[in-house]
């Protein structure tokens, strides 16, 4: 089905808050086989809310509206909907009862009036009988409109638990079948990826390729359509392997894969462990590894050796090395990695030291210069990269590159294809 | 002036990529005194691009379009604009010359054809004569339309360097003066903040308050308008102090302040240092502190003691404590913080140990249980929090709370107002 997403809130149009809910909804709806015509963000302005909703109803099969449903005085969505669709505000006693119970569970002093949440446009149906801040839906001209909270977690839960399911069983629509696979690529420029894949485009009208820089990675989407599930799946089967082949070993995974998840599976599968010695990243590599549930099976921890003193004290880096070659050097990266293996019984020790900027660069070692050390029972290797970007971008590139060096080491791949 | 922002890309409507450029543009335009009527996101569909642009031109004073300008085959914005505004594609030799020079500077094997970038709708003016991937602008019916790349960094640079300035000197528009201040709050629920401030609303039509959960913080915006700069500034002066007063010491800063920046300024101002001993956050607190340029002046580093073995080896935590009270306990947090102060000469040692989930919880210590230790030359304090949310949310809450405990300690505040 063809859908529109409308996000409401002055905080969004004034750029105070990044809109992540429309993005999440689009991804989930797309994965469920729907297509999104437009995502519109507007302020808490009742007239504009009404006009935007009416236009969406004219051209889409369903509409999702997020935000402006809360108890505070700047939440105006329900009033706008009542007016635009001529559905007077109506009191829903069951909803009020549920909200009252929730309100009483709040600590004393926070028991704000939540009665407003029980006044909804006529014809509203609660989406969830248990959720404390339920959204609702209306059917207008045979088309469903879903109203969800703007708070990302509440919105996501309701979308997944109720909206996707209701749309899947909606009557009377011819569904165009869409299949998509997203490839995750690290260490290749977008233009090089386009060069490798361009010859696959335009030959088959059912096939579409997309190139998306998702810093510090590039994601490539392969989208195929068909009038039936079988046709869409056959086309996906035909092209998926070709795309993967041309991307080569810079493609670390697909779909919901993350680089830290892939590295974690490789380590867990071998019963091996990793620890990190981080300078310029300040702990980002360690934190990224621990985003994965169960990472304690292979991640021991490590040292954030941000100051030279901690490099010496906690990792046993020889002061001579720092005086002679500098803290940002291959020698120091090697000493950090090897030092970490001395103080903790770990299989793979990954060290990173570099200049994140904006200060600290020199002609020899400009901002973005980052050395990596990787010490294993067999040997220690060092790597030099020069990244460009702002401080936090250099940190993100260094973290992602460090994890990718570990992935390549675990898979026995060379490091030749990197272009960062 | 009243503006619209249109973001173009299938990667956005399919939910593959989060749209951060519209958010950035809205924030910058708002800060420059403009108002955004709508932010629309659509796919690479020429007809829809044309219709969306025409509607924006009808109701706004200026339009900003991002995305779809690149060299790859799925970039269709220019073709759509040529068709919708009846401005045939025209070859711009100067732009081609500049692009050619850039193309030759790429490594061999990546020299893709960039000629497409020199074909623009008739009447286009390059926005920047130096940028390698310049955007352009057109004037249609007396209204400027700016076309910017979808790549966030390129778009941001061009917006700040060219668009904001051109709009500031645009002729013939009455400019409504807007002033905004955003307060950053940590450790108070949105509903409690609304309760504290609600009495300030509705008394003065020039004043508007907004409440925005920006996980794990809440931001509060105070927006005032006036027919003149003086009036707007006088209103801001009148209300800014009142809002700050009612928010109290849970408000750590305003505007571009970050909690890590505020903590850093407090430490730097006293010539003091901090180090971190992190378990469940895996390095997030350290990394957050190093996001601030110049943080090496006060941040030494620390230990990511994710495994119990590293807690013992690197921090000297007594194994008896872990056997008796568990690694997630006040005793262990205290031992981690005090151990860190033993191995590094630091003023403030912050330790965190908890259960991020989804596994590992128990009846006594459910998922979200996090203990903090803060060791200073004078004493060691421990704190217990119970957070709710997914694994990465618990990690983010723990990191933010740890930094806030440090801020409160440095300012001599109690910890009474937290409600997380």
From TrEMBL, chains A, B:
Domain of life: Bacteria
Matching Pfam families: CinA (PF02464), CinA_KH (PF18146), MoCF_biosynth (PF00994)
Domain (MoaB/Mog) ranges: 4-169
Similarity comment: Belongs to the CinA family.
Protein name according to UniProt: CinA-like protein
